[in-house]
Amino acid sequence: MGICEGRVVIITGAGRGLGRAYALGLAAQGAKVVVNDLGVGTHGDATAERPADEVVAEIRRAGGQAVANFDDVADWDGAGRIVKTALDAFGRLDAVVNNAGFVRDRMFVSCTPEEWDAVIRVHLRGHFCVSRHAVDHWRAEAKAGRPVDARIINTSSGAGLQGSVGQSAYSAAKAAIANLTLVQAAELARYGIFVNGLAPNARTRMTEQAFGEMMKAKEGELDVFAPENTAPLVAWLVSERSHGVTGQVFELIGGLIRVCLGWNDGPEYDLGKRWEAAAIGDKIVELLAVKPAAKKIYGT
User: One of 170, 191, 269, 298 is an active-site residue; which one?
Assistant: First the structure.
């Protein structure tokens, strides 16, 4: 029996890459899975493909339970239908794994408003819409006196935690998702909802163009960037065993797992009165000299 036996999970963007690995891994651990995927290309362009059906078929062939959903995560009514799919198919919902997204890589000086809005929409609004509908369900359950032990798992990125040259919109969205995770965790624990984030390092369609050569598997070595590496962490976070763990962002690279620290207070100095503009610069130079070095932005 797996650690997710009987748990009902929605995974968005689960037709390929990380989402597919999560869906297969969770099903192998006994979860019932809603495989959501719109079937779009890496830039969000429409295609005739239906990879969600393929993942569902693979899960069923292995003896698991899964259904497909093709709604847009960033459409409010569509997100409601994703949650309804879980409730109609399996009678309950225990977890949402927000994974869907695409990239529109551009240097900041070349990024158009349309590209910016598209990336922010799928990542940030997509996380909001699906999670909000799920939370409405869980909150109603809690208010009705029925026990809730629910999970939201959000997807940030190293680009969101430290920035990435050529990915200003994507980095901004992923940084916002990390902070959304903190706020959700603080607000939703009272209802029995625990929220954590991931910053996966994996070989997917989104990483092929920018990091394809670096992320290639090396013969005879651990495939550090295989999407399947992150699946066990997702399974544990979805399971009842992670009860009480909330407000964390985890980074996983091959077999290395890291708990991210995020923003914290740095060096400070209190003058005890209002600063003069001409004087404040010297103190800022002193504080910057003792500030711990930040991780370098990807691409620098």
Answer: 170
